[in-house]
Amino acid sequence: MKLIISIMLLIASTSFAQKNEVVAQVGKKTITLEEFNKKFNEVKAQSVNPPTKELFLEDLIRYEVGLQEAEKRGFAKDPIVLERLNQEMYKALLERELGPRIQKIQVNDKEMQAWYAKNPELRTSHILIEFKPGATPQQIAEAKKRAEEIWSEVKSSKRPFEELVKLYSDDALSKQAGGDIGWQSRVTLVPNYYETVQSMKVGDVRGLIETQFGFHIVKLTGRRSFENANKRQIRAAVFDEKRRQIFNEYFAKLKKSYTIKENASAIR
């Protein structure tokens, strides 16, 4: 019996010694065989073409050399490094606190249909009177004046909308297609553009809609049924709404633990 116990102790001792066998000493950092195997197996499980153990050990050594050199140079106090650390801590909090709840989110057809009833896919054609990014107030005013003149022409003209597009639109991409920008959704359109066309009837023409691209005169040419809609995009949108609700509830509760003062007028 004593012999068996001695053998078992010897095996355990040998296993412990192997795990703690040093594979590399880098300055003040000791890399044990157990640590090496753990990290190597993680990389191997996530890679189609994992490195050899020798190459991976070299990577670990370089990492430690680089880390210690960064510490020596005081990077731990660098504002950029601290900001990245803050971002990583924020991400870690969300992953730990909200990750499990987000992974349990499910989306069914009834929810998708309810969302789509309020957010249908629409097809529009437009005349764009553009102003460039960073345009001055004067340039924007000039573009608006031109847009108003064109809008007056469109309202009184008996020409097909497609012809007016070719005469006036600055959107070279859609101009040759009569202004058609294809089927779009709330996810893919600028919010005020989408809100305007959503309230229109097929065949209606409306202006002016201002976006970051310029002033639009828009014709609604189609409203797609749920059966023909992009189900993947709808599912993703419903998922995002549920995820947003989880975030909102979490931070609404968390914010109660902190004194918060806002001065919203300063950013207007």
TrEMBL record:
InterPro entries per UniProt: OMP_Chaperone_SurA, PPIase_dom_sf, PPIase_PpiC, Trigger_fact/SurA_dom_sf
Pfam entry (one): Rotamase
Record's keyword annotation contains Membrane: no
Domain of life: Bacteria
Keyword Disulfide bond: no
Residues covered by the PpiC domain: 119-222
Transmembrane spans: none
Position of the signal peptide: 1-17
Keywords (A to Z) from UniProt: Isomerase, Rotamase, Signal
Molecular-function GO terms, alphabetical: peptidyl-prolyl cis-trans isomerase activity
PANTHER family: CHAPERONE SURA
Protein name, per record: PpiC domain-containing protein
Organism: Bdellovibrio bacteriovorus
